[in-house]
Amino acid sequence: MYKVTVIGAGDRGGAYMNALRELGGGVEFASVCDILADRQEKAFSEYGFKYQSADWKEAILNGKPDIVVIATPAYFHCDMAKFAMENGAHVMTEKPFDLSLEKCFELKEVSEKTGKKLAIGLQYRNTKYNRTLKNAFERNLLGRPYI
Fold first, then answer.
1. Which site among 13, 45, 128, 142 is 20 to 30 Å from 21 CA-CA?
2. Peptide bond between residue 145 and the one before it cis (omega within 30 degrees of 0)
3. How distant is the alpha carbon of residue 147 from its chain centre?
4. End-to-end CA distance of the chain
């Protein structure tokens, strides 16, 4: 049984919570964190979390998770992931991973030092919108991309 903390209970956090619930008996919802009280309370009630907090550090420390799912704005990802790993949890987050390349490299070292795994999801790569754009570029409808 894996204890999971979810930080960010909006659309992306909700997608992760639904996927985790579908796994069945292998997951215990340890703690949930969101700065918006209504989203936090909804996730707490709907998924049966044991603890809730608007403070992500408290959620990690009190949840004592095996895995932390980070579904927040990108500029929080590395700081949250580092804290989670240093407190004994593996981490699942999303791209963009962070806005600081330096922090990303630092986190690689934290992962190696703590022995905790870091997974980064590419959630929007295959949406209908992105597939349509890719097709338009492939057909030269928008010109040549430079970056």
1. 128
2. no
3. 27
4. 44
Q: Quick one: average pLDDT of 84-111?
A: 89
> CATH number of the domain that 84 lies in?
3.40.50.720
pTM summary value: 0.82
Helical packing angle, 77-86 and 56-63, nearest 10°: 20
Q: Is 40 inside a domain boundary?
A: yes
pLDDT classification of 80: cutoffs 50, 70, 90? very high
Within-domain flag for 147? no
Q: Which residues of 63-92 are buried (b: 16+ CB within 10 A; e: fewer)?
A: bebbbbbbbbeeebbbbbbbbbbebebbbb
Q: List the strands of the sheet with 118-121, edge to edge.
A: 51-53, 27-33, 2-7, 67-70, 90-94, 118-121
8 A C-beta contact, residue 28 and residue 5: no
92 within some domain: yes
The total number of structural domains that make up the chain: 1
Query: To which residue do tokens 């962070």 refer?
Result: 98
